[in-house]
Amino acid sequence: MAMILDGNALSAEIRTEVAADVAQLTAATGIVPGLNLLLVGEDPASTVYVRNKSKDCEKVGIRSIVLRLPAAATEAEVLHQVRVWNADPSVHGILVQLPVPKHINEHLVIRTIDPNKDVDGFHPENAGRLMIGLDGFIPCTPYGVLEILKRYSIETSGRHVVVVGRSNIVGKPLAMLLAQKRPQGNATVTICHTGTIDLAEHTRRADIVISAVGVHGVITAEHIKVGAVVIDVGINRITLPDGTTKLTGDVLFDEVSMKASAITPVPGGVGPMTRAMLLRNTLTSAERVAGVKQ
Ligand code: NDP
């Protein structure tokens, strides 16, 4: 039976560390880290995400402001708000909750955020920095996965990692980070996606399988070699035979955990780590402004 990689416990540890570092920064410099969140429209899931992110901030001493704009807000109004926050020195992190309504160009919104305040790590400058190994902001989900590997002392150097999924926010940055010559890197990385002919043929050769797909059951016991580490990024809501719904990952947890050496559960794995790393990125931004961190 696989060891459970407990994202709830690790994220609590990280929040405690961030809270201590926030207190120290504020005591030494007077700077209170600030994260401003913009929510456009009333999507229920996005509303919950933004509320949770704001509550997380409060708990660690990060000031947070949530601004809600109606779904009919224009692109110009959204860009204007981002620019106001870019110019405000009390704002260290800017997060526009995605997706934005279809009439607003998401890429333009992301490009308008000051890269030094882009704590989601989605701006092309931060994506480029990540690609060539420079400091920037690592997107929160890949960052959370790296922290799981680090804090559970899971060796990546020289090992074969298969990342399933190539999105700009999870699969691609994660694969790049794991392939680089860095801690929690130096791995041989294979990226799989819908163009992959035989997924199981690749994943069965992996020491570490990371699934970021969004399809429940895409990873079964057949996809895993005995003793592999399995990180499940997927979040899917499935309907059970009795009509109730349940949150699950991409991985068939019960059968895969009989074969793997370690596995993240869903919920309670990568999800809480993503939230914790947003706090870490916001603090890092404030520390850079204070000149105490590069
Ligand atoms: P995207 O939909 O942007 O990307 C999914 C990727 O999976 C694509 O590259 C797609 O390939 C690939 N894919 C889809 N179906 C298959 C398949 N059958 N076999 C192999 N590859 C496949 O999703 P995200 O990266 O944004 O998110 C992935 C999952 O992670 C979702 O469930 C999301 O909810 C979850 N998530 C969880 C987070 C957390 O904090 N735990 C944070 C962010 C996301 P192609 O490129 O060819 O379309």
Question: What's the quick description here?
Answer:
This protein is an alpha/beta fold and 294 residues long. The chain has 2 domains: 85 residues, 3-Layer(aba) Sandwich (Rossmann fold), CATH 3.40.50; 132 residues, Rossmann fold (3-Layer(aba) Sandwich). 40% of the residues lie in helices and 16% in strands.
Record the SSE blueprint.
Layout lengths: L2 E2 L2 H23 L4 E7 L3 H17 L2 E7 L5 H12 L6 E4 L9 H7 L11 H9 L7 H12 L8 E5 L6 H9 L8 E5 L6 H5 L4 E4 L17 E4 L3 E4 L5 E4 L4 H4 L5 E2 L6 H21 L4
Parallel strand pairs: 1-11, 2-3, 2-4, 5-6, 5-7, 7-8, 8-11
Antiparallel strand pairs: 9-10
Helix pairs in contact: 1-10, 2-10, 6-7, 6-10
The chain binds NADPH dihydro-nicotinamide-adenine-dinucleotide phosphate.
